[in-house]
Prior knowledge:
Strand content: 5-15%
CATH superfamily of the largest domain: Phosphoglycerate mutase-like
Helix content: 40-55%
Protein name: Phosphoanhydride phosphohydrolase
GO molecular function: hydrolase activity
Pfam families: His_Phos_2
Radius of gyration: 26 Å
Distance between the termini: 76 Å
Keywords: Hydrolase, Signal
CATH topology of the largest domain: Rossmann fold
Shape: globular
Number of helices: 13
InterPro entries: Acid_Pase_AS, His_Pase_clade-2, His_PPase_superfam
Order of helices and strands: HEHHEHHHHEEHHHEEEHEEHEEH
Amino acid sequence: xxxxxxxxxxxxxxxxxxxxxxxxxxxxxxxxxxxxxxxxxxxxxxxxxxxxxxxxxxxxxxxxxxxxxxxxxxxxxxxxxxxxxxxxxxxxxxxxxxxxxxxxxxxxxxxxxxxxxxxxxxxxxxxxxxxxxxxxxxxxxxxxxxxxxxxxxxxxxxxxxxxxxxxxxxxxxxxxxxxxxxxxxxxxxxxxxxxxxxxxxxxxxxxxxxxxxxxxxxxxxxxxxxxxxxxxxxxxxxxxxxxxxxxxxxxxxxxxxxxxxxxxxxxxxxxxxxxxxxxxxxxxxxxxxxxxxxxxxxxxxxxxxxxxxxxxxxxxxxxxxxxxxxxxxxxxxxxxxxxxxxxxxxxxxxxxxxxxxxxxxxxxxxxxxxxxxxxxxxxxxxxxxxxxxxxxxxxxxxxxxxxxxxxxxxxxxxxxxxxxx
Length: 421
C-alpha cells in the first residue's frame, strides 16, 4: 500500500511538471485586444478649385481670388498639412503597436494612389513617407492620368440599364427632397445667395435657391440647380480659408467669414449625400475598393491593378483618393460622421480606417474609425496628435467595445451588396 502511494505521488509530480513545462513553452495569451492590421483611405490635401478661376468668375459674376497653382493641384500649404497628417497617423499607429516604435520593418506599409489626378499621387507619396519617416516607401499606382477602377469603376460608357437605374433613383431622391430638405441646407443656400449675388434670383444672375434637377453629362450623373451651385461655392470658400487666404479677401468682404463658411457647408455635404452616397451610384462605383478592403481586413493578400501584391502580412495599407471615395465607402458600409471643428465631413486629409483586432479569446473583430484635422489647424499648419472618432456599423450597434465580429462585418458587406443598399 505504501509502495502504491509513493508511485502515485511520483506520477503526480511528473504530470505536474510536464504540464508546467508545456504551459511555459506556449506563447503568452494577450490580456487585451491587439491591433493586427489597418486599412486607411485618405482624401487628398488642400487643392485649388478644379475649374479655372475665369470660369468661376463668369458663372458667379464675381471675381475670385487667384491661386498659386493650376486648377485642381495641391498647394505647398496643402502638402505641408498632408505631411502633418501623415506624421500624426504614424504616431498614432506606432503607439497602437501596429507600426514599429523605432526603426524600419520590411513590408510595414503599402500605398496605392489614384492615378487619375496628380494631387492623389502626391498625397499617397507625402503621407506614406510622413507615416514612417526615414523608411523606404514605394507608393503604387497606375501610370499618371490613367483611369483606376479601384477608385471609380463606373464605366466610361454606362449601359442604358445602369444609366436608367441611376437617373431614376436620383430623380426620386430629388422629388423626396422637395419636402424633406433640412433647414440648415436651405439656410446655406440663402447664405450663398446673400454673399455672392443678393438680387440674383430676380435679376437674371445666379440663383442659389433655384430648383434642382438630375442631369446626365460626360457619362456621369450630376445635380443641376441652386443646391449644386451652392455646394461648389461652399467648398471653394472653405478651401480658400484652409489655404490661409486673408479672411477679408474671402467672400468679398462679407463679415464673420469663418462663421459663414460653417453656415455654407451643409449645402456641399447634402449635395454629396444626394449624389455620391446614392446607392445606385456608390455600389457600382466603389465595389472594387470595398472588396479589397474586405479581403485586407480579413487577413488576405490583395492584388493591385498593376499586378503587384499587398501581402497578407502587411500591417498598414493606405489608399489615397478623393472626398468622393470617402462618400462612396460611407454608402457601401453604412457609415456616417461629422466633426465639430471641421464643417466638411470629407475635408482635406480626412482619413477613414478599417482596423482588424484580435481579442484575448482569439476572436478577430473590426473597428471603423475616422481621422481629421480641424479647419483652423489646416489653415495655420498646426501639428496635432490626433485621436480618431469611432464609427458605428449599423448592424453591429449592439456589440460591445465599438467593434464588430469578423463574421458580422463580412455578413454586413455581403448583405448590402446583395440588396444594393
